[in-house]
Amino acid sequence: MKKLALTLALIMAAAAFAGCSSAPSSSAPSSAPSSAPASEPASEPASEPAGEVSLASGSLEEIMDAVLASVPEDQLPALMPADLNGGEKYAPLTEENSEYNLGVTRDRYAEGIAAEAAMSSVAHSVCLVRANSAEEAEQLAADIEAGADPRKWICVEAESKIVDWSGDVVILIMTGADNADKIHAAFTALAE
Cβ distance 174 to 150 under 8 Å? Predict the structure, then answer.
């Protein structure tokens, strides 16, 4: 009986360790936006090109679709399904999850959504928020930069953390460095 209990305990410990060590090792996350242009995608983007949406007139969902389309589908982790997002394609940012996702309270912005990896052992999160006004967006971005935790998943850490804003839209990208640069470049292109 003791051998069986010990064997089960070892199996459970090994499984827990494997879940926490599945992310590739990385250096400290970068908090400064990359100024280098995004590299060419290795395969076709996941959906329509980013140039058809405007930050000023597009919904947050349209903007998210456009920036995520910059990453080839086979390089983007599986995102949280709609049935776990209250039926929405992307998780709405609420009073309950705002500080976890952004490091700021929900009353700081008008609306927000998050595209999260479906598996918690994959460090991938892209959040879009519409500030209460364009004048408040710069300070909101600075507060998100200071408060967002690239280790929010506990077992894994995002290689790159980028916060940027244009008009009243703020983006927080926490994911692998290559994908972060592509997503940031797409966001920047929408701002032009």
Answer: yes
